[in-house]
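chain and backbone:
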Amino acid sequence: MTVAAATEPLGDRLRIAPAFVATATNDVAGIETGIEAHYVRSEGRYVVRTIVNRATRDDFDQDALRRISIAPIMQAAVPHCIAFEAVDVDLWTTVADTTAEEGRLVSPFIAVEVVKRGMKEERMAVVSLIYGATALAGLPPVQAVARELDVPHRTASDWIMKARKAGYLEGMAYIVGRQPER
């Protein structure tokens, strides 16, 4: 997905794709899974509307078909659907385009910089990126902010509350607690 597909504004610095289709293939099990998700503003996240599984070979793993989880597909797809405007630069880019390492949303260098005192604006922008990429996928954002920025859970929670008060998390929500089965 490209920046051009991110047309739905969320706050001042984020835009998301209103919907997306993603596909993942498990070569070991011989199963391809496709999902279609749409952003639902009242829920503050993407909601999966379609799931399609198909065998990619005759001897596919039928037991694996029953245990397929869409969470990893959502987690991989959502960063491609979120675009942000870089601080002090008139340039939009996707979160996926700025991912420095496999499994990370922000580079370690950026994480170290935004944790410093006096980096409030930049910190809130990075917190909103991490929050958006996880909450929109239905994953726990406080854990992600703590992990990505290498800060205690309490600090991550505090920064998220401050970002919400400052309007950085408009249109994004995450219900704390056990999530319903999808």
